[in-house]
Amino acid sequence: MPKHTLRPQGDFPTAGLIRRLAAIFYDFLLCVALVMVVTLAYQQGILRMIHGGDTLRAMAEAGALDHDPVLASLALLSLFAFFAKFWTHNGQTLGMQAWGLRIQNADGSAIDLWQALLRFVVAIGSWLFAGLGFLWLLWDKQGRTWHDIYSGSRVVQLPKNVHKK
C-alpha cells in the first residue's frame, strides 16, 4: 500500500517537549474515556451475558474482576486502535490537532501501521522508564524521542497560519 502524503506539506520544525506533553495530556483524557467505555461494554455486556447479573455482582464483590487479563487486553488493543487510526490517517490525534503537532515520515508521508505499533510499544516503555524516552529529545540533536527513533518517524510543529485544504 503506497504511503499517502499529509497536508500541508513543508519543512516543519521538530516539536518541543512542552507541546508534546500538552498534547499527551489532552489525549490522556480521551484515553481514560475510551477505557471506561470498553470496560463498561465488556463487564456489563459480555460478562453479564456469560455469567448473569447476580453472579457478576458476586464476582465483583469478591474481587474476581480486579485482574482480568481479557479486559486488560481489550483496553490495550482499543488504545492502540485509537492511536493507530489517527496516526496513519492524518498524522494527528485530537490532542495533537489542538496543539498543532503531527507525526510524519521524513518525506512528509503518513506513518504506516507497523510504525504506529512500534511507536505505541516503545512509548509505553518510555513511560515505564520514568519518562526517560520522552526526555531523550532534550539530548538528541534532532529532538527525537525513543519512539521517534525506533519507528523512523518524527513529530513536527505545524505553523499556526497553515490550514488544511
TrEMBL record:
Secretion signal span: none
InterPro entries assigned to the protein according to its UniProt record, in alphabetical order: Pra-immunoreactive (IPR051791), RDD (IPR010432)
Residue ranges of domain RDD in the record: 14-152
Keyword annotations of the record: Cell membrane, Membrane, Transmembrane, Transmembrane helix
Lineage top rank: taxon: Bacteria
Cell compartments where the protein resides: Cell membrane
Main location: membrane
Residue ranges crossing the lipid bilayer per the database entry: 21-42, 69-87, 117-139
Record membrane topology: Multi-pass membrane protein
PANTHER family (alphabetical): PROLINE-RICH ANTIGEN HOMOLOG-RELATED (PTHR36115), RDD DOMAIN-CONTAINING PROTEIN (PTHR36115:SF10)
Name this polypeptide is given: RDD family protein
Species per Swiss-Prot/TrEMBL record: Ectopseudomonas khazarica
